[in-house]
Design a protein that fits this description.
The radius of gyration is 16 Å and the shape is globular. It has one domain. The protein has 173 residues and is an all-alpha fold. 60% of the residues lie in helices and 0% in strands.
């Protein structure tokens, strides 16, 4: 990945687009491909040159702690990538225990749909990040939540985005 200066990185964050469910690879991939894919999409969120979004040992730890399902014969599927992307974003603010609880809440919901939940997370994340980077706050954020789950998800995403914004400002000085 080409090194970006601070201002270029902030501009790119305004345009961030997480892969949607239909964008995730539709075939089995190995650990090194998982790590490369996630780092390709999430490295822009790191402000230190030493930071990497994810490493193989992190993936193994998430599997060991049942946050992400184990690979099947060393192959990772689309749902593994979706979980890992969400975990990598949420871990900026939340403990792995809290993230595990949030995933459990989502999967126990009556109308649980991993594809929709993942895409909604991506949409909320992008809208919140764009709003806070552009305006310095979330006051003009326009997301219509339909139920308690969407409200919780929006609050979780807002907290992560505000942390990212604080990191941006701290790096600026």
């Amino acid at each position: 990945m080409q090194k970006l200066n601070y201002d270029d990185k902030v501009e790119k964050l305004k345009e961030i687009k997480l892969p949607r469910w239909h964008d995730l690879p539709d075939f089995d991939i190995y650990m090194d491909q998982v790590v490369n894919y996630i780092n390709l999409h999430l490295d822009i969120l790191n402000f230190s040159d030493d930071d990497r979004s994810i490493t193989p040992s992190m993936v193994n730890n998430y599997v060991k702690n049942s946050i992400v399902k184990a690979p099947i014969k060393k192959h990772y599927k689309k749902y593994h990538l979706a979980y890992l992307i969400v975990v990598m974003i949420l871990k900026r603010v939340y403990s792995l225990s809290d993230i595990s609880k949030m995933i459990e809440i989502q999967t126990k919901m009556e109308e649980s749909n991993l594809e929709l939940a993942y895409d909604t997370f991506g949409l909320y994340f992008e809208k919140c990040l764009h709003c806070v980077i552009t305006n310095g706050n979330l006051e003009s954020l326009d997301i219509d939540v339909q139920n308690e789950y969407q409200s919780l998800l929006l609050n979780v995403v807002e907290s992560v985005v505000l942390k990212i914004y604080a990191e941006i400002k701290l790096c600026q000085n």
